Amino acid sequence: MKTMTAMPDLKPAPAPTDDPGAAAWLADAQQKFAEYETALHRAETFHARGNFDAAAAHAGLAAHLAVRPHAGFYASPRLERMLVDIGRRTARDTGWRRPAGPRTFNRILHVASQVSAVGGLTNMLGHWIRADSTRTHSVAFTQHRGGIPEGLRSAVVESGGNVHFINRKPGALVAWARALRELSQGFDAVVLHIFSQDPIALMAFAEPEKNPPVLFLNHGDHLMWLGVSISDVVINLRDAATDLSITRRGVEPRRNVMAPTIVAPATRTRSRAEAKRQLGLPDDSIFMFSVARAIKYRSVNGVSFADPHVELLKRHPKALLWVLGAGDPEDWRAASVAVDGRIRPMPESPDTKLYFEAADIYVDSFPFVSSTSMMEAAGLGTPMVSRFYGAREGRIFAINHPGIDKPTLHGSTEAEYVAQLERLITDPALREAKGKEGRDSVLFYHTPPSWMQFIENAYATAAALPPVDPTGVFKADAVETFSHGEPDWRMYDVFGVDRSTDLLKAYAPLMPIPERLAFLRQLKADGVAMSLGEGIRLMIPEWIVRRLKDRA
């Protein structure tokens, strides 16, 4: 059955006009969109010539430019149409067809671009496999380098599955897409945990009737990503992500489901009082704690993360705020001095457990939330406060995750935010009650076995729906257009514009030799640093490098 779901004509909320930096970031973002279009047009040229390997590599590069950083849109109809066409024209027909009608899923193939030793995506994949213990799970990596974490490997093996490295097979992106497609036909369902710019799955699953149902885990919900056209179901981790999937990506409402991030249940190793003593804090102190990457604490319109807390801490001399990961921002120093050092920014550290266990109040990062940190705090029974001062269309920057939204005290203005903190500082009973509410909520929504009900619903939805029609998701003439409304302008303002071109070199080994040489010459002409040894290395096909270097 063919469906036609046009991308909605979204009228995003306008960008602010009173930000002195707005003109600068708007110009930077428009330049980034222009760079994306240049790469896209190069991919389209190769596609028109039938040079599909070069087209796919430049398509991935174009998507990369749209993701790092945001280029003003959340889905690319032109890239998706082109990659679907490549997938259809280069696939081998094995005769396999998707079974008709509702069915059960027993064998799951998870597809990931790559995983790191630590990180939310790695953790979610491993936790999912262990929680879904009645099924067999395998993992296919499309662009992984090196070995994989032993915990993830053991979870796969214990489920009865296998690990596959698609990029160790001869060829490049098109051949890997064909290999992934044929591998998938031995499974009941496919779950994509891929990077936003990875084009392989879009080519691999370009003919949905010839592959199992595809579920896309929307883990990069604030970013543009490839895969809208081939996703039978999109699994959103929060309601703001669902909004964007429908309004800015063109995903049919019936193909969206919710499944919260799965985390390991938090466990205490010491009491709050003992943790405070180990940090050298008085027993009667009110310890407010926050942890995230430094970029999530970026100053906004000349106001630092620290500034709103100064008068609050002056009123409450036993309260203090430590922020792990903020570094040593110069514009925090006056605030810290004003309260005798009770506001303390600190560098990033992997050793966070002691701070979490000592915290009386957990304070979310701002202007970009840190949901995993909030979940860890909630799991220990720590009350939480978060803030977001924008319009509803920008809520992707706010806490709206199922298990932590309701128990969190929210501030929609600075005055409201400070008042919520003051309520918790002055009311031990409220701290206890909100802490218990948060712990119970995160255990239900974010940990097994109750978490499995969300995944079972996702599987059931994928089994019941007809295959998505990749040619009907976008209108035939749909194109991505630059937006500087909500939430786009916040992406530019918070994350800035990444001018680094170093990562683009990774696309060279994915191209045919003539195009690779031309691409490397262009990078060098553009001023990208490249040693002679590196240039030689980039001439070796990626699959050969992976076979030689990655033996795990």
Attribute tags:
six-stranded parallel sheet, 552 residues, 13 strands, alpha/beta, globular, 40% helix, seven-stranded parallel sheet
Q: What does this entry look like structurally?
A:
α1 (22-48) packs antiparallel against α2, α4 (120-131) packs parallel to α5 and α13 (371-379) crosses α16 (428-446). The strands form two sheets. This protein has a seven-stranded parallel beta sheet, with helices on both faces. The chain has a six-stranded parallel beta sheet with strand order 10-9-8-11-12-13, sandwiched between helices. The radius of gyration is 24 Å and the shape is globular. β9 (319-324), α11 and β10 form a beta-alpha-beta unit. The protein is of the alpha/beta class. It has 21 helices and 13 strands.
Characterize the overall form: globular
Separate helix tally: 21
What is the share of helical residues?
A: 40-55%
With strands numbered from the N-terminus, the spatial order across the biggest sheet is 3-2-1-4-5-6-7
Query: Beta-strand level of the residues, as a percent range?
Result: 5-15%
Low-confidence stretches: 1-14
Backbone structural class: alpha/beta
Overall pLDDT level:
91
CA-CA gap between termini: 44 Å
Number of strands: 13
Q: Over all CA atoms, what is the radius of gyration?
A: 24 Å
What about the largest sheet?
Answer: 7 strands, parallel
Question: Could you give the topology of this structure?
Answer:
Layout: H1 22-48, H2 52-67, H3 77-90, E1 107-112, H4 120-131, E2 136-141, H5 150-158, E3 163-165, H6 173-184, E4 189-192, H7 200-204, E5 214-218, E6 233-236, H8 239-247, E7 256-258, H9 272-279, E8 286-291, H10 310-315, E9 319-324, H11 333-338, E10 343-346, H12 353-358, E11 361-363, H13 371-379, E12 384-387, H14 402-405, E13 409-411, H15 414-426, H16 428-446, H17 452-464, H18 488-495, H19 513-525, H20 532-537, H21 542-549
Parallel strand pairs: 1-2, 1-4, 2-3, 4-5, 5-6, 6-7, 8-9, 8-11, 9-10, 11-12, 12-13
Helix pairs in contact: 1-2, 4-5, 13-16
